[in-house]
Hints:
heterodimer; A: about 400 residues; alpha+beta; 4-stranded antiparallel β-sheet; 11 helices; 12 strands; about 50% helix; B: about 450 residues; 15 helices; elongated
Amino acid sequence: MEIRPIASALMRNKSAMVLIALQVAITLAIVCNSVFIILQRIEKVNRPSGLDDSSIFSIASSGFAANFDLDGTIRSDLDAIRAMPGIVDATPINSVPLSNGGWSEGLSDKPEGTTLKDRKQEQTSIYMVDEHAVKAMGVELVAGRNFNASDVTVRTQDDLGKVESIIITQELADKLFPEGAVGKSLYAGGIVDDKRPVTVVGVIRRLQAPWVGWDKVEHATLVPAILQGEGGSRYLIRAEPGQRDKLMPLVEKKLTEINTGRIVRDVESLQQTRADSYRQDRAMSVILGTVIVALLIVTGLGIVGMASFWVTRRTKQIGTRRALGARRFDIRRYFMLENAIVIGIGLVLGALLTYGFNLWLMQHYELPRLAWYYLPIGAVTMLLLGQLAVSGPASRASRVSPAVATRSV
Amino acid sequence: MFRYNLWLAAISLKRNPVLTALMIAAIGLGIGMAMTSYTVLSTMSGNPLAYKNDLVRRVQLDNWGAEQPYNEPNEPPELMSYRDVTNLLEKSDVQYRAASYPNFLPIEPAQRELQPYMLNVLFATGDFFPVFEPPFRFGNGWGKAEDANATRVVVLGHETNEKVFGGANSVGKKVRLGGEDYTVVGVLHEWDPKPKPYHVSNGAFGGVEHVFVPFKIGIEKELTSSSNNSCWESPADDDDSSGYAAWLASDCVWLDFTVQVKNADQVAEYRRFLDNYVTEEKKAGRFPRKLNNRLYSISEWFEAQNVVSRDARTQVWLAFAFLLVCLINTVGLLLAKFMGKSPEIGLRRAVGASKPQVFAQFLTESAVVGVAGGMLGLGLSLLGLLALRTLYAGTSNERLANMDWSLVAVTMAVALVASLLAGLYPTWRACQVQPATQLKTQ
């Protein structure tokens, strides 16, 4: 093999070798960690909400007229919406899932006043809804029962109503009552007006909290209460498949007609709400993707530039080798091998940098450890990139005529 | 001499157009990426009140429950309870006391063609204006009397005044908000402090509210905050009141509270006052946690609230690492190029050029590449910011991607310094060329 002559040639041009190897090392570290971050973001953006995202939309209204009757308006709104053709169901709701604005409470298996060590407590998002919620959200009830009309109470600022039952998500149920949650009692702080517990009547497979960045995003609780606060109401409406876009303006118009003393606002599909909430994550993925592509191009072009230069400088040497009997293939292989060695050196340094960078990200950004396969895949990619970049200059080198050896430069 | 060097650089760069383009492109891309992310970061880490950072203090009292801190490790709530805010408004004699919270009110414009719509309203004490200094176009804020009587007065933001009064001086006119008439006392110019110096809990870059009305009106209307209300125990737990009265009497936190002192010495005085206040309240059975008050300056408070997003920081690190790769790349290419010119260097040295003269010649060439790369980078960062605005459209980050003249200057400076640094080693190598060896091979 030609390792020895290549090595001695490289040692004579240490700076060029070091520069390429450094580039390769930093590129490897950035590409591995960025791809890792991007894949995590993609996983986050695509996780299921538990709802029938594509058929659901939300709408809100705020009364401004002096004699505005919130209670009556909510009742007529819901009756009218549910009666519209193409609507599956509708529920009043205090905040829209995935909208980044909502209500959270601590659920605990013992009353307030018990020390934290003696009780299990989990923070959860709260959705105040009526008995239509399970159908209107398209969530799947996996244990227990749905609310019935008699469970549903009205909550105003002065009267918190009488909440006796709740439905919680599977993940929350598993944390609080691994042995099964249905029928168990929970204390729920601000949900009830005294220290009375509420009963878990049902468990749903999945329903995400309003805050997509929350580490407990799978903790959600349905509370059978119609919230009548500050003159406003909000509904979550599920349409038949494919009917949503047609129904959104119709429902808006209908609500405006039912009561003119209010502002109907925030008509938005759940898909839109979802897209808005995840926009930062999408943006981050696109930005990192751009960095990766630019980095690979710059590093690749850098290798092309350096290799071309060395080919030019060694034209005479190549000619001499050709004259002494080296085949084109040998010349080509020489440059390809040289490139692989330099990149290999860079990759060794790059592996250290990659894990160093990952450790730093773990410390400062709570990122998990890089999976083992990123590094080999990244290394092979860099080697291939190097071979691709060097192939042009190498084949140019292989075309150097042996006659060059006889000329002076 | 400099002009001669420039002329030499131009000839040399033209002789090798592909290599030249490659170097300029590498520096341009690196600078473009780095400056795009740096622009976002520098806006995020700005402080609109920097000029009086030593006078303005964000007040935080730790009235949380004994069992758990508001945030680990032992962070007090970022907002305040109504009880404490009213006490501090009454008892302290510090120069300005700004309490505020956001919510919505419907507006019914007088013009028939405008439908009623919802306004973002900031319920604030009159001191809000001297503390945060929004620029007034017409009129002024309000004073203690309006605060005390919950007088229906309003300061309109620029956008609302344009929409409802066509941009005219509306001071003294009436506006119908939430079913009541308010008198306009002031109109603001466009005002968009980034980050928002009085409220960050629901995003520090979402822009300011549409209109401002006296704090007490929100309380009379029994409104809570539309942004963030947090409790460690349910409001109705330890007294007989219920509903809004219980809410006001509770230790739930939901209000922003900022003070301004006359001179920096008064900060320590105010800190003692707060500690005394909490100690007194402890005697009445409140504040179960250890004394843990904070009196942050606005910049410290932004820091503590992590106003600068992690994503933005990561992006800057990555972008500057990318710039580093681009520079290493340029070093390599310059080195290759300058080494290729060894015969020319040998000749110049042989006919009498000194090492410093050769040094100046090649450094000039690097600088030319730097300036060209910087200009390309500037163009690319403007494109990059445009792309960011599209990517972040609809989120508050959209408003961060704007470049100003100081950043243009920084960009050019970074490009020049970076390319000179990149040129330093190749230039030094070029100066080491021995004229004799070069002439021999010719």
